[in-house]
Amino acid sequence: MKHRSRTDHPPARRRTRLVAGATIAALALGGSVVAAAPASAADPLFGPNVTIFDETWTADQISAALQAASQESEFSFNRHQFFFKPGTYGSAAGQNNPATATDIVNSELGYYQSVAGLGASPEDVRINGAIHVEPVRACEANPWDCQQPGSLTRFWRSMSNLTFNPIQRPIGADALRPFPSGLTNAHQMRFAVSQAAPLRRINIEGDLTLMGRVGEYASGGYLANSNVDGEILSGSQQQWFTRNSSVGTWNGGVWNTVFSGVEGAPATDFGPLPAGGNGNKTTIDETPIVRESPFLYLDGDDYKVFVPKAKQDTRGHDWSTDAAAGESLPLEDFFIAKEGATAAQLNAALADGKNLLVTPGVYYLDAPLEVDDGGTVILGLGYASLVPTAGNAAIEVGDVAGVKIAGLTIDAGETLSDVLLKVGPDGAAVSDPTDPTTLTDVFIRIGGPWAGKATTSIEVNSPDALLDHIWAWRADHGEGVGWTSNVGDHGLIVNGDNVTALGLFVEHYQKNQVIWNGERGRTIFYQSEIPYDAPTQGAYMDGTRLGWSSYRVGDNVRQHLAQGLGVYSFFDNQYNNGQNIYVESGVQVPQRPGVRIESAVSVMLNGTGGINHIVNDQGEAAVAPAGTAKFLKVYETETDPNAQNLQVTVPTGAPGEFVWSIDGTNDLVDLGTAVENGDHFAATGVINPVRVTDTRASGAAWSVSAQVGDFDSSVSSFSGKYLGWTPSVVEAGGGAVAGDEVDSGFIGGEGLSVSSTLGHAPSGHDRGSAKLGAQLDLRIPIDVTDGTYRATLTITALS
């Protein structure tokens, strides 16, 4: 493994139109004399890369420590975690005029720097001041002339579990510029970021701006389980995802702004607007399932890790840490990994039943971490990074449920890995919808620090898994970047059923960036850029199809829902010599009822070629000129073009034949609305009768049987075993005898999920015709998700 530090790189090549930003008149200049930090800055329990502040630190000491760590380069190997113990830091005395405020905490937040409170609630740590993110400056004299790179590469930094009374002003060299980037309005803090830079459990008693002072480009971010009292100004943000939060007002955005379970969210306006132009907002009232991230906190003098429970159909923030909200695990349940720990050491701890607390650092692994115990927690601090060194995976999860993996970065090694993170073995079956295996703030890189290689970044085989904020990135700049260097086919493959993704960012992979094969998958917010560096159209073809769709739902999938998708192209002419390269569609799905795409946008950022359609053959082409965006509100089909209607004619009066058919033309047996009956829901109905005619002279025995599949809705399913029946001979003849009664599996057994006899006739029976029927008895567990469910009853006749 080569370890190369990077000193320079070309700017990221995204483009967007300028969106006007706020104009701010105040100007702050100057610096301060900073007292030395306490001698015990690094915490001995968690290692040298973790610093814990308490109220013995002055505001200036805290600011100096944070600012010093914020200077890491984009592909540095250093990692930093800062914690604040419960308390108040800084003074609010000058809050109305940041230019003259004194004794405030004021620092920028840099690469691989995480800052978090150690309280049980964000309100336990109060910061008078600001920890902020500013864009890259390219034009000192007149920054309005240089909108990029701006915040397009402001990755890998985070804050959580803090309350801010925002008081921000420029710092250091920025304060001496004619137009300082760090200048804001009173009671406003800036967090102008792109991918892998989450805000969680943040309480802001004022305003939050997500873009640079002069509207510099920004490309996506993530806010969850937070409260912002005032305005959130998203301005030049190309895309942003906000989940389970409370906001005052929202202002701005460019192409794809998605809200899920957000109090105060704006109304959906996605696509063409009556007055012209296009809206960019998609609002989903409730998040279908969520589990907030585990976090370290202090319970008195004891460190614990709080692991929230999964919740369904929620909105607004929830900072509770009582027993109903989750479980507090003592630190004794964790192996505290420090930089230099080996795969063997970490696996030994996992085998002993320990959870892992992975402190900041880069961990080189010659074997995957084997997670074989359900409920295991792996929590990374300060962008702890795992690097496979022998073509192995970084983590492999067994066929278990309830595993929680959070706060980790995985860098592909220079030896090709088949997969970097595998959730469940092939064919995994164990799951618990109430305790899903969850990936939270997991970030993958292929290339950047070196020429990484991995065929697939994340593979999810476990049913009911939950992905909450994923960025899988095949690097477009940095070390080892090139079409044949940092190779990677797919960012995410989902094979498990009932998997949900909330905030999915997948970029620059060389084939389908996401492949979704599991049933009843759901994605809320997707952001993806097509690779910049395809050399020719011939090198970027899916068979005979132009290019590779970014988001691909498998041909056999019958139910899938994705909302808020943005797919962007920039076929850079420095790689393709100016040749046009096209993608047939950014999103490709099977054309059948039950598969639905809402709020999808394609954008031609720059370069050559573009995207011909948004979903399948729908949506206008996003091609030149640069910045062209096309919007599609809904993609859904009423019919399945791959289905075939079958017809057969049975001749009447033909001697010596055995024939059967289903009476009537109604192909849907409607059991109506189930009625609650104690510990279950109950519904009844009658099948369409089956006519059996046997005119053979031999009188050979015959039987008619049936078997039902699972009952499916758009969001859930339950087993066909809960259907039972009582067969009967509706019209007697030909020696027909009714089959035995089959109880619903709710009472016992497997119900009609196994083949059961509807009727039969013994050998030597008389010639004739009979009509067979059955009364259906459906008993559904009380905890099944509400909805309209359908199943298929397959009837088979044998003789």
From TrEMBL:
InterPro entries recorded: Pectin_lyas_fold, Pectin_lyase_fold/virulence, SACTE_4363, TAT_signal
Does this entry carry the keyword Thylakoid?
no
Q: Which UniProt keywords apply?
A: Signal
Keyword Glycosyltransferase attributed: no
Q: Which residues form the signal peptide?
A: 1-41
Show the CDD domains listed in the entry. GH55_SacteLam55A-like (cd23669)
Name of this protein: Adenylyl cyclase
